[in-house]
Amino acid sequence: MLLYQFAHQSGSPEFNLKRMNLEVISRKDNKEAINIVIAKIRDYINFKNLEPLDKIPSERMLSEKFEISRTTVREAIQKLEFYGILKSIPQSGTFVANIGKIAINGIIDDILRLGTSDFKSLVETRILLELKTVRLAATRRTVDDLIKIKNALDAFSEKVYNGEDAVQEDLIFHLAIAKASGNSTINDLMLIITPEILTNFEKFHVCNKIENEGVNIINEHTEVYDAIVAQNPALAKQKMKEHFKALYEYCYKV
Question: Nearest-5° angle of CA 98, CA 101, CA 104?
Answer without folding.
Answer: 80
